[in-house]
Amino acid sequence: MTQMPDIAPALPEIFLALAGMALLMLGVFKGDRSTRLVAYLTVLSFVVAGFLLVSTVETPSRTFGGMFVADDFAVFMKILSLLGSALAVIMSLEFIEREQMARFEFPVLFLFATLGMMLMISAGSLLSLYLGLELQSLSLYVVAAFRRDTVRSSEAGLKYFVLGALSSGMLLYGASLIYGFTGTIDFVRLAETFAEGGQVGIGLIIGIVFIAAGLAFKVSAVPFHMWTPDVYEGAPTPVTAFFAVAPKVAAIALFLRVMVGPFGDLVLQWQQIVVVISILSMLLGAYAAINQTNIKRLMAYSSIGHMGYALIGLAAGTERGVSGVLIYMAIYLAMNVGTFACILSMRVNRRMVEGINDLAGLSKTNPLMALSLAVFMFSMAGIPPLAGFFGKLSVFLAAIDAQLYTLAIIGVLTSVVGAFYYIRIVKLMYFDDPVESFDRPIGRDMTLVLTGTGLFTAFFFLFPAPIMDAATRAAQSLLAG
Amino acid sequence: MVIQGLAFYLFALITVAAGVMVITARNPVHSVLYLILAFFNSAALFLLMGAEFVAFILIIVYVGAVAVLFLFVVMMLDIDFARLREGVVRYLPIGALVGLVLLVELLVVLGAWTIAPGGETRIASPQPSLESGLTNTEALGNLIYTDYVYAFQIAGLILLVAMIGAIVLTLRTRTVRRQRIADQVNRRPEEVLVIRKVEPGEGI
Asked: In this complex, do A138 and B151 lie within 8 Å of one another by their Cβ atoms?
């Protein structure tokens, strides 16, 4: 008889899955009036899952026949995605009630997407990688099209679905090639096979390229970025806030795990791919954002650029590089959540506005919001001593360590270009005359999120040690495994 | 052995013939029916190979679900198949050329096909030996519910999300005003009627 698999390492995921189903039942029986309750319970389940993750999961452990891996790296990334999702749910509550899209499925879908992210982060074989990715993407397609009566939201959902299906297809094709050429889908056995050395067949390289392409789509790196601006603009704003944070963290984690784990010994084969993707993303993120007038589109291009910077750390492929990416993603999460809290508060006469010019003169009408948005913008541009500077610093240092000087130089140059459009927003807020003032108050939840992320971004330099240490430990566990 | 051989040629012949009819039949409904015939005969071919599970799945999934769905689509959509077929003769030469190129490519690829030396030692998936007497339904069941229980459960969750998504994006709860006979019967004239005395030439 086969032994019962050890479920202890997957306890947070199992809890989250059961909580999702229970909340679904609650919503079905109580109707759409229970949306607020379901949303609060969703946030509570994220908190409980995070608690289980920290307290009960022993690292490193593998279970379910090696399909599920729990190590320090997984714990770090899972906490980031849980945090991102929980903040996104909190920020979305008021919006969905105001815009008559308060249906109880909304937080439940966020929960299942988060579950998919956690499974992705813990993937131990190509099969569990694909299943986790699909669970996450499918939930995201639905929430993108959640306002089914508006053309733009449906368009965003459909576009995301069609292109996402294409990228899943590419990923599967790559996985099948790798399985065909090595005879295994298990990450550990793949790593053993490659560690033996020997000639790397052309078929195998094509397989890796396809997998990298599929993953690059999920992190929206150039040249697989086309969906990002349209989906960000079309999807309801809290959904965009969610898209910009948690799925990116999970996809980057998956990218790191796949490239550094099973394909770690083939670094010469994939390094050039990641370098090219990274350079192109940084360039496009810097130049294409300059002409944008819609702030959600601007954030889309900004996130493409940020993914380029994060991929610098992956291209280095060293422990320092991996920990750089982790630090970068933690800081990216705080900056983006804060910025989207500001965007969600941009309302004039009870209507959402999305134009960059609507921000003009914000410092006179709402000084606190203007100040925090200015902090986020300076931080994204990478101005010391704000948090964003340390994120960039850690990946650039890793690149220089790995002697990828071109990459580091292009990174620095594009962040100068990027600084132009970030600081333009600050200029608009502080030096232009106000057009129309935003509705006030912006809501208690939003103020809390804004203050929290703002303080983190502004004063990260005083207490960098906890995150830095955790990232280093996580990177060590990934490279050891 | 002879009977097996005869059965193979019978089913194979019918499959190919049905396949040809699928693309040549004038009536699209007939095409779908021929498709179902082809599925049944392929299932019989799988049975001959000893893959009874695949045979059943082929009938349950393809005939039971996919082909019936096709039939629905063909019957519900008003597609003018005669117009779609226009110009077949005109495009025949180029189609034949593309087919020929594909055939040559396949021959070249398959002709140079070798299996990597030592490749079979790396196969990771367990295969039940023929002596164990397991049917392949049992063997698959053993794997799905033990080694691959994780993948199986996640697949279940994905289907759940697909279901939620379909409901969220399409279900509309219409508020239809139902006829309540008791309410109608219980209505009293004094609740709904007001009688006013209207003076001539003044209006209300």
From this structure: no
Nearest CA in chain B to A127: B151
Which of B57, B78, B99 is the last residue in one of the domains? Answer: B78
DSSP state of A5: P
Through-space distance between the first and last CA atoms of chain B, rounded to whole angstroms: 101
Kindly report the pTM of this predicted structure. Answer: 0.87
Optimal mutation site among B149, B159, B168, interface A, most CBs of chain A within 10 A: B168
DSSP state string for B103-146: HHHHHHHHHT--PPTTGGGG--S----GGG---HHHHHHHHHTT
In B, minimum Cα distance to A145 occurs at B169
A-chain CB neighbours of B123 within 8 Å are 183
Residue B204 resides in a domain = no
What pLDDT is attached to residue B161? 96
Cα–Cα distance, A296 to A229 (Å, whole number): 8
Question: Considering chain B, what is the average pLDDT of its residues?
Answer: 84
Residue B58 sits in a domain whose CATH number is: 1.20.120.1200
Domain residues for the domain of B73 are: 1-78
Domain boundary among B30, B50, B78: B78
Say if B124 is an interface residue toward chain A (CB within 8 Å): yes
CA distance A457 to chain B (A): 35
Residues 171-200 of A with CB under 8 A from B: 181-186, 189, 193
pLDDT in tens, chain A (481 residues): 467 788 888 999 999 999 999 999 999 999 878 899 999 999 999 999 999 999 888 778 888 888 999 999 999 999 999 999 999 999 998 888 888 888 899 999 999 999 999 999 999 999 999 999 999 999 999 999 998 888 999 999 999 999 999 999 999 999 999 988 888 889 998 888 888 876 778 888 999 999 999 999 999 998 899 999 999 999 999 999 999 999 999 999 999 999 998 888 888 889 999 999 999 999 999 999 998 999 999 999 999 999 999 999 999 888 999 999 999 999 999 999 999 999 998 888 878 888 888 888 888 888 888 999 999 999 999 988 899 999 999 999 999 999 999 999 999 999 999 999 999 999 999 998 887 778 777 788 888 899 999 999 999 988 888 999 999 999 998 888 6
DSSP state of B113: -
Amino acid identity at B90 = R
* Angle, vertex CA A220, rays to CA A217 and CA A221, nearest 5: 95
Answer yes or no: is B146 within a domain: yes
Residue B85 belongs to some domain of the structure: no
Distance separating the N- and C-terminal Cα atoms of chain A: 29
Number of CB atoms found within 10 A of residue B161's CB: 25
B124 → closest Cβ in A5, A128, A186: A186
Query: CA geometry: angle at A135 spanning A134 and A136, to 5°?
Result: 90
Residue B29 lies in a domain: yes
Query: Which structure tokens are listed for A22?
Result: 């229970």
Structural contact between residues A347 and A355, judged by C-beta atoms closer than 8 angstroms: no
